[in-house]
Specification:
Two copies of one chain form a homodimer. Chain A has 333 residues and is an alpha/beta fold. Chain A has helices spanning 26-29, 51-70, 90-95, 112-126, 139-146, 200-219, 235-248, 260-264, 279-295, 313-317, and strands spanning 2-4, 8-24, 39-40, 79-84, 103-105, 130-137, 162-163, 166-173, 180-185, 228-231, 257-259, 276-277, 301-309, 324-332. The radius of gyration of chain A is 18 Å and the shape is globular.
Chain lengths: 333, 333
């Protein structure tokens, strides 16, 4: 790979996304993208005894499905890049426990999916053959861990987002017919002082802006170069902020830009407030919906910018603001 | 890089460790390695209002120190690989918040330091120039999060280990005179059913064995090829187990093998029970002690195998066993 501009890397090898798989929970199965997902699970527990164990099952089954679709054997996979929102990333580690494949745990909060695609591409660019990337999140395990016990029935604030229940997995390979990952722009931690842990869209939008502007500037591309620029989970609040911030920087992204958290749920019929979020948001929307648009040649150039809020419950309790990050990956036919 | 054997990668480029820095807390400053650390802090809070904020300061200051020693500017660093034990890795994210350097968060529990060295090497092998790797842990923040409030004064079990307070940071570069990272063997998640969260050494030893045997088998090297084989934090219990398990597999490692958690504290004078642990254990012992042995040519070949327990408090409460992982990195003059 070669560094171009300040922070973007152009991959030397053609890194092909040879297969994807997406599995979602009941609320996502009622949303506008339901027909695109590989599997819709009707019960948040999916037959397990806890939400955490269910989340591990989501990421495990999505990864097995992606691997099966790739027609590669587990022994062909050089390593896994995987992460999630649970403390110490236990969804990924327990989900991949039986894989017998070298495992690298990663954590970028909800930006983890694009972090996985980036590091997976680098691994292949350096000489590996095949890499599996997977992320998950679960509404119930996330609410329990980050906010309140669901049993309390707390009212949610208008700016809050709904953590997507599900998992997305992709197999990357140096051998394949595309779509290809061509560039990636790793994110810089950006903290504009937002302290409201129920307004993640506002906390993450400045990080998305920084990565977007860096990517466009480094590559010399205009927003219109892409058929679609997609952020991971800024939701309705963050999406509006990003459009305005980009316009202030001279970039009109309104024609090509959308957010996976906005696409995931039906705002009129499904009461999610500010839209979807979570590591599974960009992972399932990409693996389920966007990948199919690419393969069917409805679109040919996508910039996926997954966004993450790098805080925890303790940091908020200690009065800290919320650092954001956004990792961008360019995917082209 | 080229894959050799089943799971080992030989790096094409010479990845030089151009600088290291280590900062430790008060207990570590009383241990046998005190003269090797760059900075010994006398107060667990280090002037901050919480242990979490102090841990962020450890990783931030260690990284600034390593960067300064490298004579590189922050703008020369292509990206940071960093992680820690706190929920959602907040020590790393808050510690690196002001760096303005592209940031990849990683999580391998106490194996994170070798995961960082591996992925940093891959990043340079693929085409980047310079990478910063850093990990931290803190006894007080770890006890509070994983076990009991320190104020309770709970008795610790004989097999329990003492989380190292500190941070280690290294700068990797494609330009440098060594020591060089020449090979790495990523770990496979290994779970032998250990459920005692106060016996991490036993939980992680089988993972260390698997990575060690894989590395030796893939490279065709015997244990004696290395001047030193070092695990990250198996402690006294895990160290004994690994020696026995390796002997059962036909490898006598007793002459060249030691553990960073054993080296860190004085067993007779410092009451740590089974030795040191934590992301900072291998990071500070390597950055402080081992790196200097290499630079001064007292040793020339080291295999560092950082070990991690991939669980959290919830998984233990839900009756899960403790999956282990171990990532190996070969460092040679």
């Amino acid at each position: 790979m070669k560094k171009i501009g300040t922070n973007t890397f152009k991959l030397d090898d053609l890194i092909s996304i040879v297969s994807t798989a997406s599995i979602v929970g009941p609320k996502e199965s009622d949303g506008p993208l339901k027909e695109y997902f590989d599997k819709c699970v009707e019960d948040e527990f999916w037959g397990e005894k806890s939400w955490e164990k269910a989340e591990s099952k989501f990421i495990k089954e999505a990864s097995i499905s992606a691997l099966n679709k790739s027609s590669l054997a587990a022994t062909d996979i050089d390593c896994i890049f995987s992460g999630d929102l649970l403390n110490q990333c236990i969804s990924s580690t327990f989900g991949m426990r039986d894989s017998n494949i070298p495992f690298y745990g990663i954590f970028g909060a909800c930006s983890t999916f694009c972090e996985a695609l980036s590091l997976g591409s680098v691994f292949i660019d350096a000489g590996a053959n095949n890499v599996l990337c997977a992320t998950s999140s679960h509404f119930c395990s996330a609410e329990k861990q980050f906010r309140f016990p669901l049993e309390l029935g707390n009212q949610r604030t208008p700016n809050s987002q709904w953590t997507v229940t599900g998992a997305g997995s992709v197999v990357l390979s140096r051998n394949g017919k595309g779509p290809f990952i061509t560039h990636f722009t790793p994110g810089v931690i950006t903290d504009m002082g937002i302290k409201d842990a129920n307004n993640m869209g506002a906390a993450m939008a400045p990080a998305a802006l920084k990565t977007l502007i860096t990517h466009l500037s480094d590559t010399g591309r205009s927003p219109d170069y892409y058929d679609m620029i997609l952020t991971g989970d800024l939701g309705y609040v963050g999406k509006d902020i990003l459009i305005k911030l980009a316009a202030e920087q001279g970039y009109d992204i309104s024609n090509v830009y959308n957010d996976c958290g906005v696409l995931m749920f039906d705002q009129a019929k499904q009461d999610t407030h500010a839209g979807g979020s979570g590591c599974a948001c960009s992972a399932t929307v990409f693996s389920g919906y966007i990948y199919k648009l690419l393969v069917e040649k409805n679109i040919s150039k996508v910039l996926l910018i997954a966004t993450g809020a790098l805080m925890n419950a303790t940091s908020s309790q200690q009065g800290e603001s919320i650092p954001g990050i956004a990792h961008a990956v360019a995917i082209e036919l």
